[in-house]
Amino acid sequence: MPELSNPNSETMTKKTNCRLVVGLFWGDEGKAKAVDVLGENADIVARYQGGANAGHTVYTGGEKFVFHQVPSGVLREDVTGVLGAGMVIDLPELVDEIRELKNRGIDATSRLVISSRAHLVTSLHKRIEKIQETKLGIGTTLRGIGPTYSDKYARRGLRIGQLVHKHGLEESVRKLIDSHRPFFEFAGEPVPTADEILTPLLEKSAFIEDMVDDVSLFLTDSIHAGKSVLIEGAQGSMLDIDWGTYPFVTPTSPALSGVASGLGIDPRLVEEVIGLVKAFTTRVGNGPLPTELIGEEGERLRGTGEHEWDEFGATTGRPRRCGWLDGFVLTCNCRRWGVDKLFLTKLDVLDGMEKARLCSAYKKDGKVLRAYPSTAKELELVEPVFEELEGWSEGVARKTKFESLPENAKYYVKRVEQIAGCPVGWISTGPNRENTIVR
Ligand code: GDP
Ligand code: IMO
Ligand code: MG
After folding, report:
1. Contact 66/97 with Cβ under 8 angstroms?
2. Residues 179 and 284 reside in one and the same domain
3. How far apart are the CA of 250 and the centre of ligand 2, in A?
4. In terms of Cα–Cα distance, which of 180, 185, 191 is closest to 154?
5. Closest CA to 125 of 186, 204, 192
6. d(CA 19, CA 270)
7. Would residue 232 count as lying in a domain?
């Protein structure tokens, strides 16, 4: 009888080259900038959740690129981009995004892998969201994200694999329409037809056919083969369906929990969790933002729009709400996701401010909280505890060495580390790849 060895013993103890970039706030923390910096030697960059609600901006060679569904890492030649099973794909928009990239010299067509299990956003979903938003007022991106995930969990969604193989496609579309018929009729809106839904999808199906694959197998094999894999989170932890400021959230898990289901990989293969934190806090859309600054101070952080990086949505163009850095959110999310290192962005935006404030905790009824409140109503009752730190006149923008930062800026970074209970591994001092301090 041949001797049988334990097939797992070796792979489980091996270190991998797989890292996760995750937003710790309400999105737009600068995840794409971090992916651009960290992706220098990456073989693969993978998205695991969300869809075209994401807007990931990278500046390179004097040009601005905004990614919505394509992983931003494909900007680097030879990087394979993965669109995971946990994503929802707006196919016509995806094809446009790939074609636009090609027109700008980035040909990703032969280096994209799309999960056959990812769900399809259809025109029906976008129409439903438009009607629902008038009642719910979440302030969504109107990309059909919520209704598509609802149909996924109601087990009537359409998936990429079904579109490509055409198995029972028309019947599934009919069932989908029938389940939503009462909604459209009640709203006094025309009920979508199968043609309306299917034609735009069928037109683009051939374009992606060769990209469709099993991403779980592809990624697990790649990670075990020692490939360098960067996992690109979208949205942020405070938009998490379970741990965010419900109901003002996105319907996915933008943190480590979403990686396992969205990519079909053992989450223990993720060697390092890199948490993204911006030097101040922003949110776009409605819902609680305890450190929000209304008026001049908020406008100072947002900027007027004169700079490329001023705080206006990369997907919807909406002005982002701004406030001081919320250290309590930071503490809670570093603990929840086991963040190994922080990537601190936009420290340069605080250049020239006389004082900088940092929220180190929340108080409710005079008591400091340990757990993050679970309802929007409770969050109205909390009082952020602020520390006032000395600002610095200039000297952070485009710096590349920690030693060359003004002393007050160094102190700010160290205080952020203390509040987070986690070291800052990178400081971003401008939108470009080079504007980065590695510590
Ligand atoms: P993402 O969704 O997390 O990838 O972030 P967005 O792309 O939506 O928004 C971040 C914005 O800040 C983009 O315009 C980036 O180019 C810009 N940005 C990132 N890091 C820095 C930085 O350190 N300094 C400045 N000034 N801009 C930055
Ligand atoms: P990136 O990846 C910031 C917000 C919307 C809304 C809520 C729900 O660029 O950080 P949805 O359309 O997802 O149902 O909207 O979530 N939101 C984002 N805010 N950055 C994002 O992505 C976001 N994606 C969704 O504004 O408040
Ligand atoms: Mg964004």
Report:
1. no
2. no
3. 6
4. 180
5. 192
6. 6
7. no
pLDDT of residue 326: 98
**CA of 439 relative to ligand 3 center, distance in Å:** 25
Whether residue 294 sits in one domain with residue 418: yes
- Chain segment 247-275, per-residue pLDDT in tens: 999 999 998 889 999 999 999 999 999 99
Kindly give the pairing relationship between strand 280-283 and strand 321-326: antiparallel
> In terms of domains, do 197 and 297 share one?
no
232 lines ligand 2 (CB under 6 A): no
What are the tens digits of pLDDT across the range 167-176? 999 999 999 9
Which ligand 1 atom sits nearest the alpha carbon of residue 430?
24
* CA 27 to centroid of ligand 3, rounded, Å: 6
Identity (one letter) of the amino acid at 269? L
Is 178 part of any domain?
Answer: yes
Amino acid at residue number 255: A
- Boundaries of domain holding 139: 119-210
What is the Å distance from ligand 2's center to 385 Cα?
27
Determine if ligand 2 sits within 6 Å of the CB of residue 141.
Answer: yes
170: tokens are 């028309």
Same domain as 430, residue 290: yes
Domain boundary among 174, 194, 210: 210
In this structure, is residue 91 part of a structural domain? no
Same domain, 193 and 336: no
Which of 161, 130, 163, 164 is closest to 147 using CA atoms?
A: 130
Give the Cα separation of 106 and 117 in Å (integer).
26
Q: Which atom of ligand 1 is nearest to the CA of 57?
A: 7
For residue 280, what pLDDT is reported?
A: 98
314 and 427 in a single domain? The answer is yes
Gap between the Cα atoms of 408 and 353, Å rounded: 11
Coil, strand or helix at 318: coil
Task: Identify whether 199 is part of a domain.
Answer: yes
Q: Give the pLDDT confidence score for residue 2 in this predicted structure.
A: 82
- pTM score, two decimals? 0.96
Alpha-carbon span 338 to 182, nearest angstrom: 45
CA angle 103, 109, 113 (to 5 degrees): 145
Last residue of a domain, one of 166, 182, 210: 210
Closest C-alpha to ligand 1, atom 26: 430
For the cut 70, the answer to whether the pLDDT of residue 215 exceeds it is yes
> Looking at ligand 1, which atom is closest to the CA of residue 315?
8
Catalytic residues: 28, 56
State the Cα angle at 174 between 171 and 175, rounded to 5°: 90
